[in-house]
Amino acid sequence: MYWYTLTPLDILLFRDAKPFTPGERAWAGSVFPPNGHTIAGAIRGLLNTDQSFVLKGPFLCQAQTLFLPRPLNYAGVQRLAPIRWLQEQDENHSSIQMEWDRRFPTPLLPEGDTNPEEDALKVQDQQNQYRQYLPSDIVLNLLKGKSLTATDSSCPDGETPVPWSVESRPHNTLESGSRQVKQSEGYFVENGIRLHQGWSLAIAVDTLTHTQIEKIGSLVPMRLGGEGHQVLVERCSELDAQWQSLQGQSLHNYNTGNTALEFNPKQARSLAYLVTPGVFERKHSDVATCRAWPWEWKLANPPNPNQTRGPLVSVATERPVPISCRFREGGSSIPAPQVFAAPPGSVYYLERPEPLFQDQASVNGRPNKVHNWRQLGYSELFWIPYGVN
């Protein structure tokens, strides 16, 4: 894979998948960073092609350094752990009498002594001040089994929790010779994103796409998002090594966890850290349903002891990300059904490493349709060994 930076020349506009009606005074929802479909559409427009792509990202970049979303399994700087695992570590733990609905993943509690009621407001205030994107060296330390520290989480001088500002832009057209808005045009407002100075988006593309971009030039303008706003596409080879280090450590952790199953199953316990939106969709009675964790990962503590036990113990996540894309049929483009993705930063607690069904390019000799999500950069997981602090 070949890494590129996308540096905005102005604000960027990315509408989310929520419908709105311009004729009825409305806010058009926005999303940032953009999703893989948006990036793929921009590249197709740049190269004037309908070919398929393999993408990684998008992530954020500053000073030739990748920044990934902060993992959500921390309350402040205190790591969370499943009740079940905490009870095993300490028979006198305060959670020993706790019960939960076993149709769902095990709840999470902070590791160590804490009073959740007293600390709730303090933790929320701290979360609002922490940087929401971490540089690749800190993420690499996480993959090596280290925990986030206050220094890791604190914003450096002059930096804000997210490296962008939101600018609201009204859209309307006035009647000729008057100060009245045209009724046919309506009125609506949408949010533009202005990345702070020195920041850009970062993506990786496959060899064929890289070759085609190089033929155009070394600094290429590309339309990205709404209203024709542009970014400069520039090769950034420094990101190649950073990504390889992260992927290499993640693969090492995955293999180590599988090996541990043979001699000490508890040492196989792992965290799957989601760094791009995760789309986990499955049809039930011809109705497509999305949820925050992969359907093939069965619960490790099911409500019925006779049910097959799976690897999934718990999930640390937030509100879903709505994603809408389009189908191409007969030369036309039509809206595709909306899906809801698990947000980047979600963390899954598993009794053992488990692959994604999406990772398989084919199943029983036939193309795996959901593998398309992975080709567009969705559901990217890094593996972290679980250890007691």
Describe this structure in words.
The protein is of the alpha+beta class. 21% of the residues lie in helices and 30% in strands. It has helices at residues 36-47, 83-89, 116-129, 136-143, 150-153, 207-216, 238-260, 371-375; strands at residues 2-8, 26-28, 55-62, 65-69, 74-75, 78-82, 108-110, 133-135, 164-171, 188-195, 199-205, 219-223, 230-235, 270-274, 281-284, 287-290, 312-316, 321-323, 326-329, 332-335, 339-341, 347-350, 362-363, 366-367, 381-385. The strands form eight sheets. The protein has a seven-stranded antiparallel β-sheet, with helices on both faces. The model has no long low-confidence stretch (mean pLDDT 87).
Short description:
It is built from 8 helices and 25 strands. The protein has 389 residues and is α+β, with helices and mostly antiparallel strands.
